Amino acid sequence: MRSEILYKISLALLPPLYTGLTRLWFSTCREEVVDERFLEECRARGPVITAFWHYSTYYITHKSRGRAMTAMVSPSRDGAYMARVLERLGHRTVRGSRRKGGLAALREMENWVAQGRSAAIVADGSQGPALQAQAGAILLASHTGAPIVPVVCAADRYYIFSSWDRSMVPKPFARVCLMYGEPLRVAAGIRAADLQQHRLELEQRLNGLYTRAWQRFGKEGHVRDF
Q1: pTM higher than 0.85, yes or no?
Q2: Domain that holds residue 157
Q3: What are the strands, taking DSSP E only, across 2-139?
């Protein structure tokens, strides 16, 4: 009972504290945005699916302020914190993952995209493997007709967490690069063989951007393990 009460208190207090802190923290960073035209050109025509790797969630979530989207968030207790953060930033969230409630969450996202709302998907999911795309973004694009725009971020100085994806947070006053890629379009009614082909294509595009973005700071990536 005590632990449940503490959890509810932290769920009420930590998201607003986090959003306020990161707004100040990341405002000190010097940001370079590369090829954002790919995103803006697609958004001018209709809903967009933004896909990114899990390691970059903290910074890309911060950058999403003012661009209302629907995001899929893990149904875990930890995922509830991120859901609250995203909702404070003006987004809608659906709860689901590859192992629990994923199909229902995907259908809910399809409904929101059909109503004209853009979507955001962590391409390697809530549990990985890291930097390996899952099928969710491809299925959503096939069912809605919305293009997938990949985006990555890199920094010259950053902290790394000991999580499965080695989550990265730029240090104060760091130089940060946000890099967008060409949109990936997926035909309606995609079959299994084509699904795998498009999944690999998204993975290659994201990892190509990942390499280019980190090379701007003379690095191979944010950790050598990947």
Answers
A1: yes
A2: 2-215
A3: 30-34, 49-52, 69-73, 92-95, 118-122
In a domain, 211, yes or no: yes
Q: Is residue 226 part of a domain?
A: no
* Residue of 217, 220, 219, 221 whose CA lies nearest to 30: 217
| Count of positions (residues) in the chain | 226
Q: For residue 224, tell me if it sits in a domain.
A: no
Supply the angle between the helices 102-114 and 136-144 in degrees, to the nearest 10.
40
How far is residue 182's CA from residue 96's CA, in Å, rounded to a whole number? Answer: 27
Supply the DSSP string of 6-28, one letter for each residue. Answer: HHHHHHHHHHHHHHHHHHHHHHT
**How confident is the model over 19-57, as pLDDT tens digits?**
888 899 999 999 999 999 999 999 999 999 999 999 999
Number of domains within the chain: 1
Residue 180 belongs to some domain of the structure = yes
